[in-house]
From TrEMBL:
Disordered: annotated segments: 1-20
Entry-linked NCBIfam families: birA_ligase (TIGR00121)
Major enzyme class: ligase
Protein name, UniProt field: biotin--[biotin carboxyl-carrier protein] ligase
PROSITE patterns: BPL_LPL_CATALYTIC (PS51733)
Keyword Ligase assigned: yes
Transmembrane segments: none
Residues making up the signal peptide according to the UniProt record: none
GO molecular function: ligase activity
UniProtKB keywords: Biotin, Ligase
One Pfam family recorded for the sequence: BPL_LplA_LipB
E.C. no: 6.3.4.15
Domain annotation BPL/LPL catalytic: ranges: 41-217
């Protein structure tokens, strides 16, 4: 479902929660869609099943790089491993972007860095704009601290669509404790953000993605030369922790997370000093590792 573009008229019922005004689509376009910039079109819809599903369909039909689709509410949002992502209308930022890195000469083997790039860009933008320390949990979760406890408040999902990559992001902005999908989740509001105004938050995230994407493309997708690999490692809360990697096929590995390699994989130092890269799986943070142990 992809309803028509909306931009926030006070008389249409979308103001039922006065603390959660609708996004201003026209203002977002004025601030983000500019000649020569990455963002080429931007649409805000009242509700849809999944912005990623919709944008993948458009990508296959030839939609341009830089298309942005934002939903005030997702009824069938998806996370990694086909997990669902639900939240009250206008309580967060739920959007997808369409990128065509091959057009800039970036080889396909480096496209796996795109969700990590989006995480670096979002974490930096939200830390600055919301005034909340935002960190990354490998591979694509965003964390904040709520009453001293690390909690996930955002996630990223990347999908290939021919020569395009669609990256979806869901961020809990104003969710209250009683609205959390699970008690261990968080939101910017619960982390005492200095603002939960979604318009400037979204502008900051999209501008940051455009900056990082431009630099990454300039270096042919090289994560080292573009600074992306170091930036991800610097903001990754997983590194330096003892973790359990829950791998496909029901396998598990326990070890210290010691590095992010050039392929974006998490490197674990397991028993016996063996270093093992993990390319996919769920990571459970167990505890920090003391270098004196």
């Amino acid at each position: 479902m992809t309803p028509s573009d909306t931009s926030g008229s006070p008389g249409d019922g979308r103001w039922s929660d006065l603390e959660r005004p609708p996004l201003n689509a026209a203002a977002l376009r004025r601030g983000l869609v500019r000649p020569g910039g990455l963002w080429t079109e931007l649409e805000v819809v009242r509700a849809t099943g999944s912005t990623n599903t919709d944008l993948v369909t458009r990508a296959r039909a030839g939609a341009p790089e830089g298309a942005v689709l934002i939903a005030e509410e997702q009824t069938a949002g998806r996370g990694r491993l086909d997990r669902t992502w639900t939240a009250p209308a206008r309580s967060g930022l739920f959007f997808s972007i369409l990128l065509r890195p091959g057009g800039a000469g970036v080889p396909t083997e480096r496209w796996g860095w795109l969700p990590l790039l989006a995480g670096v860009a979002a974490a930096g933008a939200l830390s600055r704009t919301a005034g909340v320390d935002t960190t990354l949990k490998w591979p694509n979760d965003l964390l904040v601290k709520v009453e001293g406890e690390e909690r996930k408040f955002g996630g990223i999902l990347a999908e290939r669509a021919g020569d395009a990559v669609v990256i979806g992001m869901g961020l809990n902005v104003s969710l209250r404790a009683g609205e959390l999908p699970v008690p261990t989740a968080g939101s910017l509001a619960l982390a005492d953000a200095i603002t939960t105004d979604r318009d400037p938050l979204l502008r900051a995230v999209l501008r940051s993605i455009a900056e990082w994407y431009g630099e990454w493309r300039r270096f042919g997708g090289d994560p080292g030369a573009s600074g992306l690999q170091d930036a991800y490692a610097a903001g990754c809360a997983t590194l330096g922790r003892l973790v359990r990697a829950e791998l496909p096929g029901g396998r598990e590995r326990v070890g210290e997370a010691v590095a992010i390699d050039r392929d974006g994989r998490l490197v674990l130092a397991t028993e016996g000093g063996v270093q093992e890269p993990v390319s996919a799986g769920d990571i459970v943070h167990l505890r920090s590792v003391s270098r004196e142990e």
